[in-house]
Structure formats: structure tokens, C-alpha cells
Amino acid sequence: xxxxxxxxxxxxxxxxxxxxxxxxxxxxxxxxxxxxxxxxxxxxxxxxxxxxxxxxxxxxxxxxxxxxxxxxxxxxxxxxxxxxxxxxxxxxxxxxxxxxxxxxxxxxxxxxxxxxxxxxxxxxxxxxxxxxxxxxxxxxxxxxxxxxxxxxxxxxxxxxxxxxxxxxxxxxxxxxxxxxxxxxxxxxxxxxxxxxxxxxxxxxxxxxxxxxxxxxxxxxxxxxxxxxxxxxxxxxxxxxxxxxxxxxxxxxxxxxxxxxxxxxxxxxxxxxxxxxxxxxxxxxxxxxxxxxxxxxxxxxxxxxxxxxxxxxxxxxxxxxxxxxxxxxxxxxxxxxxxxxxxxxxxxxxxxxxxxxxxxxxxxxxxxxxxxxxxxxxxxxxxxxxxxxxxxxxxxxxxxxxxxxxxxxxxxxxxxxxxxxxxxxxxxxxxxxxxxxxxxxxxxx
Length: 444
Ligand code: MEV
Prior knowledge:
Elements: H1 12-24, H2 28-36, H3 43-52, E1 64-72, E2 75-82, H4 88-100, E3 106-109, E4 114-122, H5 126-142, H6 145-153, E5 157-165, E6 173-181, H7 188-208, E7 218-226, E8 233-241, H8 253-269, H9 271-291, H10 296-307, E9 317-322, E10 325-333, H11 342-345, H12 347-355, H13 361-384, H14 389-403, H15 408-417, H16 425-439
Antiparallel strand pairs: 1-2, 3-8, 4-6, 4-7, 5-6, 8-10, 9-10
The structure holds (R)-mevalonate.
(R)-mevalonate binds next to helix 9 and helix 13.
């Protein structure tokens, strides 16, 4: 077993050397060169990146793209997107342009509440606990006043504190469910600090109250925000007359609209399709979330829980035709920040927010909904008309060309040749070989 102690205290070079020797079995110099190739030349920026995480030995780059032609609530945007998946940015840009020409996207924030929980165990009468809680609730909230003061000045703070009796699920288990408004910040640190204060104060209050016997004590199990924020909700939609959809990839408007709405219906009723359908939506949302320095794991877990809120995992979007109008809408909860955390520290996250016109958190929620909606439109449009592989394979071809190290002239010829053919790595490799053979005949 290759156990190591005090690894974090080693220098970056020492860490890489250890890795090279123990796991890569390569010369440390080569391994250092490989990792160092991805360091920033600017030492200060590299230091900043190293500081975001621990045991940092290099940077892992992802493509940063932009998707133009977004018209959201009458305002035009270019969307910064960080994704490694080819065709995501191209597809969303096409969809955005399509809808820009049809009045754009409508988006609205329904609510912005974030949630946290204090999980605790109490041995004793539930009734006594509930009465005590009601009588001392404002005192308990006041105990966190020093922590909430700043957020209150910004228009946020603690909105609601409820005691939930969970003893029907687990003996002696209770929780505080706490609702917060965190304005433009994602608010994780703020929420967790307040929760820890509420938990420890309540435990002390009960322990020192003569209303409870010494046996009736509280044990705090944990205090943590919940990434499921069903009341931090946003909705985006597009609509136009069926006729205005025009001919879509060779499909007459009514035919396309019918196929499209049926496809979304399938994602509402079939869990396997729903998962892929929502993955497509998240292709867009995640790319924006990463580009703006937000927490994509939190966003993903929240959205998936919401998709399963009625007991079955379902499509996040809905599509329907009513009185000859085609509608597509998308609703989901998302907790985002535009101040604090990585949003201000990561130089490119800052730039992303600048590209978006330095939006408020609510604006960013609307932009995320619009991007998810467009990504969904693009995917379902392709799936129900040309099939997804046409677009994917074009982008795939670019990657294959790069992988095979074709030069510019060869790349052009490959693109022309494969324009109407099935693409695979081996087919492209064979074609490239033929091209090269025809230019430089083998000497015998
Ligand atoms: C691929 O990353 C995303 C899609 O599979 C989404 C979908 O099927 O709706 C194309």
C-alpha cells in the first residue's frame, strides 16, 4: 500500500515526483513537464488557482465558448459556456437564433428562497418541545442577529424558522427547517453559519431551562443547508404560431410541432427518456453555471430531485399546442450567486458575468432557464427531425481530425468528403491514409 503522510505539506514539485515514482512509474522530470505545461505563466494567477483547492499540481482546462443571439425578456445576451461536449454550444446558438427571430424567450423568477436544516434528537415530550419552541422562537432567531445583520441590510436574511416533528420516521428525530433570502450570493456560508448558531443556541436554551428535566436534552446531529430548494424557482418559455415555426429540417410546421410535443410527452412518462432529456437541458445549464463560477454539483442535485418530486423522475420541460400556438416551457429550482465565492475570485468567472452585463442572481436564474430551454429545443428538434448524429458527427469529425493530426488542407478534404457520409474514426483514418498515399507514393 502506497501510504503517504503530510502529503499536503510537500511542494508542488515534490508532490508530482511522488506521484511519478509511485503511480506513473515515469521519470519525475517528464511528469513535472507534463503537468507544468498547463500551469499559468503568470505566477500570481497560478497561485490563485492553487488556492482554490488542495494538493493542486496543475490545471485542468475546459473549452470556454460563447453562444450569441439570446433574446431574453426583450434583452439580447451572449452566453458564456464552459463545456467539453462538442455541439452543445453550436446547438444552443442555433436554437437561440431561431427563437430570436420569433420574439425571443420569456423568463421569470417565481421565488428565491433557500433552505437549511438543523437535524437534532430530543428525548422527551414532543408537545413540550413544540410549546417551548413557539415561546422562544423569536429569542432563538435573535441569537443569530449578529450573523444576519449584513444580509438584512442587503434585503435578505432569515425568512422562516419551523420545527418539524420527524418522530414518525425516526425515534426522537426533529428538525428546524429554515428559509433564507440570500440576495445575490449563493449564501452557503451564511446559511451554514446561521444554522450552526441556531442549533447550538437551542441546545443550550433547552439545557438551561427548568421546563425540561436533565434527561430531556437535545443532541444536535448536524446543521447544513439543503441543496434542494424547490422555492428558488425559475421558469422560461417560448411560443409562436405553429405556422411561424416554418419548415424545420424538411418537416412541415404542424408535423414538426406534433413530433416535438410527443417527444417531450415521452420524457414526461418514461424515466429512461426523461433522464436523457434532462441531461440535455443540463448540458446548457451546467455550462453556464461553470462559466460563472457557480456550484454545478449543487445545481444538478437540486434539479434532479425536483424532476422526481412527484415520485417519478420526469421531464423538466413541457411542450404543447393550444389554439394553433406551439409552446415550450421549462421550470426548475436553481440557487445561484453573482457575488462572493468563485464568482468573484476566478478571473474568467468574472469575465463571464461581465459578458452577461453583471446580472443579479435573479437575472442569472432567468438566463440559466433560457439556456436550458434552448438546449432542450435544439436537442428535441434534432432528435425528431434529422436525428442527433448528423450534428454530433460533424463536431465529432473535428475532434477526429485533430486526433489524427491532419493538416489544414487534409482537414478541408476530409470535411468535404464526409459531408454526406457516415463518420467513424477508422473511416476517417483510412481516408486520410489514402489522401497521404496519393500525394506521396510509397517508395519501394
Ligand atoms: C447529449 O449530450 C444530449 C441529448 O442526448 C439530449 C436529449 O436526448 O434530449 C441529445
